[in-house]
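Support request from a user on the community tier.

User writes: "When I paste my structure tokens into the form, the page sometimes reloads and wipes my input. The last time it worked, I copied everything first. Here is what I submitted, just in case something in the input itself triggers the reload:"
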């Protein structure tokens, strides 16, 4: 029969085996964050560009309707 301490020790050694060093995780998360920010900024820029285009087309269409 195993004791509680032996079970704890066995669990702690099993979990430590699969852990990455913090310095590696930090670099991974920084790169991930930077990629996410870059993706977000490009989507935001594209959205703004399309929004302005819709506004311009709507305004132009309204002007043509008034002229006719």
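"...and here is what came back when it finally went through:"
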């Amino acid at each position: 029969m195993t004791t509680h301490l032996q079970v704890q020790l066995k669990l702690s050694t099993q979990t430590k085996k699969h852990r990455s060093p913090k310095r590696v995780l930090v670099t991974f998360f920084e790169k991930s964050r930077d990629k996410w920010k870059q993706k977000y900024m490009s989507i935001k820029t594209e959205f703004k560009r399309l929004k302005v285009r819709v506004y311009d087309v709507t305004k132009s269409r309204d002007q043509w309707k008034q002229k006719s």
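Agent notes: The reload is a front-end session timeout and is unrelated to the input. The mean pLDDT is 87. Residues 7 and 13 are 10 Å apart (CA to CA). Escalated to web team.
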